[in-house]
Design brief:
alpha+beta, three-stranded antiparallel beta sheet, 8 helices, globular
């Protein structure tokens, strides 16, 4: 699923990408009204939790309430990282960062083996995520493929050189607060951290 905002001409900017298990619009509980739209980009099974039930959870289960609060804080951390990506990285870095982040998140829920994972997005979706044109995305993906860094084709991502992918995207998974860093990420994350400093 995605969260997105349309400009006045109807062009979509994807502002958040969600993986299975995410609580997509938890902000709607305290704010009551969302300032963005939500859509699926693949078939999805969606659970709806009424605000009244969330209120009961908050009142009766402080531990679960803290976990829901932590989920919104994690979401905010990812938003800050997306701002960094769009504001400071060139096209290849934006795409590398998004692919690295998504793979790390999928590893955390057992949907990536650290090398390959299903990633059913189009080049148009990737353009809307990274603020690029579809043509530019196509060129960057070709570069990543030709340099044996990663492949994105037929709705699958294959990471061939994680260290270089992390370095190009200045990706450091610390902001994801994963219980364990993705197993093959340490060198790439350290390189990204040094590059930012």
């Amino acid at each position: 699923m995605i969260r997105y905002i349309d400009d006045v001409e109807g062009h979509r900017q994807i502002v958040s990408f969600h993986v299975p298990g995410d609580f997509v619009d938890l902000h709607g509980y305290p704010l009551r009204v969302l300032d963005h739209s939500i859509a699926t980009i693949t078939d999805a099974l969606i659970a709806v939790v009424p605000h009244s039930q969330l209120s009961q959870i908050m009142d009766s289960d402080p531990t679960l309430a803290r976990k829901l609060w932590a989920a919104t804080l994690l979401d905010a951390a990812m938003h800050r990282e997306w701002l960094f990506r769009l504001g400071r990285l060139e096209a290849v870095g934006r795409i590398a960062h998004f692919l690295a982040e998504t793979d790390a998140r999928l590893q955390a829920i057992g949907l990536s083996d650290g090398r390959t994972c299903a990633l059913p997005i189009t080049q148009g979706d990737l353009a809307e995520i990274t603020g690029l044109t579809s043509i530019h995305v196509n060129r960057v993906l070709r570069t990543l493929r030709e340099e044996n860094i990663c492949l994105l084709r037929a709705s699958r991502l294959e990471i061939l050189d994680r260290h270089r992918l992390y370095r190009i995207g200045q990706f450091d998974p610390t902001y994801l607060y994963l219980k364990a860093t993705p197993p093959t990420s340490a060198a790439g994350a350290e390189s990204a951290r040094q590059q930012r400093e």
